[in-house]
Amino acid sequence: MNEFEQKLKEALDEKTAGLDASTLSRLRQAREQALDTPIPWWRTLHAGATVNLGGVLGRHAAPAATALGLLVLVSLLMLSSLSSNNRMAENGDLELLEIISLDTDLELVEELDFYHWLEEQASRDMNQ
Amino acid sequence: MPEAISTTFMDTDSNPKARTQSPGLERFLAEVERRALVMAEIATHSREEALDLVQDSMIAFVTKYGHKAETEWPPLFHRILQNRIRDWYRRSAVRSRWKGWLGFADDEGDPIQTAPDPRFATPERELQRDESRDAIAAALGSLPLRQQQAFMLRIWEGLDVKDTAKAMGCSQGSVKTHLFRAMQSLRGQLEEYR
Fold this sequence. Notes:
The complex is a heterodimer of chains A (128) and B (194). Chain A has 128 residues and is an all-alpha fold. Helices cover 75% and strands 2% of the residues of chain A. Chain B folds into 2 domains: 16-106, no CATH class; 124-194, Winged helix-like DNA-binding domain superfamily/Winged helix DNA-binding domain (Arc Repressor Mutant, subunit A). Chain B has helices at 18-21, 24-44, 47-65, 73-102, 111-114, 124-142, 145-156, 161-168, 172-189, and one strand at 4-5. The longest helix of chain B has 30 residues, at 73-102. Chains A and B meet through helix 1, helix 2, strand 1 and helix 3 of A and strand 1, helix 1, helix 2, helix 3 and helix 6 of B. Strand 1 of chain A pairs parallel with strand 1 (4-5) of chain B, so a sheet runs across the interface.
């Protein structure tokens, strides 16, 4: 930094140091207000902090699942009304509704391939 | 071990406050707020407008970037502040255009409003210093906004070219060009104070 730039910088520093008490007080209030601003929860998702996902999910999972289920149900009913001329569709709808309302273990559905493979292994062992 | 923060989707009152999220924020803002005010005041020629801009910038900064690493704070804060100043420029340009079309006089140049307060009279030497300081502030205030920003961030705030470019939202080459022109203009305007 050359002498001229230094002089300019010092003049600005002096201007800053010469701010009156009322302005400084307002600045402090502005800072306090900013610091008291609530942070949206998604901004807290960073390395320095973890979100209590269990609590969040526990609180919101049930209503969200109900809403999703209703949405799926309404969508299915709307789709079925479009193809109501098809006799087989009625049976299909009933089946789907049954699947949706069925209290099946989700693990079984998700790991269907694994259970299929397990069954194959079991029958192969029996044949041997 | 990071501390767990309980959160809600809807109830913002129970969300964490900025000060609890990062204790260093208060120190950073306290350190930067005065210079931010002077920058905004030189740009807007109004302390009230400057205070509003700084307050808006601080709120936006803590809610958007408070969680970032402390080393990233200076360019991010200045980016927000400089954007706010630029928005203010745009709004005031539109306002004065409307005033011009509608034939209203601009009330910003009222000599009574802008006259120095006699209570703050100082000895002669202090007065000369004040004059030189005011002349420098006036010269900076007369620069085009981008040149002013480049000067404030590079020379006064001490950001490097990369961070200045980040704060100004332009390339590093543009920062150098704006700064070069700013210095040229300031040397011309402040010949007697060199």
